Structure formats: C-alpha cells, structure tokens
Amino acid sequence: MYELCRYIDDIADKKSKAKEAKLKKIVKDLNHDSNSLKLANIKVLISNNMINKIHILQLIKGVSLDLKKKVRIKNHQELISYAYLVAGTVGLMMSNILGVKEKIAYKYAVDLGIAFQLTNIARDIVEDANMNRIYLPMSWKKLSISDIKSLDKKTIIKLKSLSLKLLSVADEYYQSAQKGLAFLNLRSRFTVLLALIIYRQIGLKIIKKSFSNLYKREKVSFLEKVLCLFKCLAIFFLNINIHKKNYNHNGKLHKYIKNIVVINNKI
User: How far apart are CA 202 and CA 222, in angstroms?
Assistant: First the structure.
C-alpha cells in the first residue's frame, strides 16, 4: 500500500510526463482486469477486504487536484476536503490493514491523516508556491504567488498569521486523533502515537523558530526524534487516557466532509 501511495504522490510532485494519463491508467487498472505489477499486491488487499478500493479512488481524486496548472483553495471547507482526499483516505486504509473493527475508530484515523496533511501544507508554503500552488484558503487572506515568492514585510506578517492559524487547525485534529488511539492494538497504538508526536513536532518547531517554514523546509532532527520517543514513552505508560476508548468523536471536525468520508462502503 505504501508503494502505491508513494507512486501516486510522486506523479503529482515530480516532473514527469503525462501525469493525468498515469492516474487515469491506475483507475482503469483498478476497475478492470489488469496485469499491472504495481497494482498486483493492492488487488490482493482489496479482494481480501483489507482495504477499500473507494479510498484509493478518492486518494487519486485528491492528487489529481494537484495536477492543475494553478492550484488555489477557496475556503476552509475546500481545505479540509482536500486534506481528507489526499491523507484522510490513507488513514482509513491503514486502519483496515491494522485490523480496526469499530466504526468510530475510523473517524479518528481520518483526523490523523488530515492533521498530517495540514502540517505538510504549513511546512511547504514556499515550495508549493514555486509550483503555482497555494493551499492556504483564500477566504482567510488573499495572497498571490508573487506575494509569497517576494516575501516582503507585509507578506511575511500575513504568512506568519496564516501559518499559525493552519497549525492551530491541525492541532485540533491531532488532539482528536490521539483520543482514538485506544482502538488500536498496543503495538500499533505506540507506533502511531510516536508518528503523531514526531509529525506534530514539525509544526511546533516552525512556530518556535519564528515561522522558519517561510525560509526553509523544516524537519525533525535525529536528536529531536529521540526526544519525541521519550515523550511517547512517558505518555504511553503514564497517561491512562491513551488506553481508554473514546466514543465521543467531535463531529464538528467532519462538518465539511461528512458526505464524502466512506467507512466500510458507507458514507
């Protein structure tokens, strides 16, 4: 599954020819008999009901939005919908593979995927602008590609404000996702918690370093990952709430995607 997701993502981000044709071929191969080696293992997972084909098709739909010559997100609703398509769907597929049984748990998996994607957007603002993409909602503050590339004083102030707002939204989804970890088995619970802490650290680091995302692609160093591991151990063994199933998911987080989130072939 990772190989397919990586392949789909690379089609959009790397300089390759016939991007739309490649995505359409994947869709065609998924819907019909095919000898595609790239999809062989995925089809086995689908046939064994380990992943839902709909989620792959939704992922492709989201990635296809990145193929436009000009990418702009109009508002908060489009932002969350996009994040669900390109990342929330991956959370759903991983939940299937990890053997999650309870339907409510899938909602938390969607939240983690969305949180990861919002962090990516905050981290890659300048990099995306160089590809004529702006994922910061225009309804929050209007910015042009030239504004972001110039990074003049007024634009920097706007981008810092937008980055903070975006990372604050991401944090709401991180907090929700953490409440759903108890639906995973112990080993998966620890692994996903660690991934959550490390990825969340990217946003915290951006803010701490006066919005370093405007000047470089922020990442978590090896030493910081070790510190994240110790934090994970402390939470895992000392915070009893991590191991309590929470059936009260915050429905407001899915306000804009409730009609497109597919769980067990149902919306």
Answer: 13
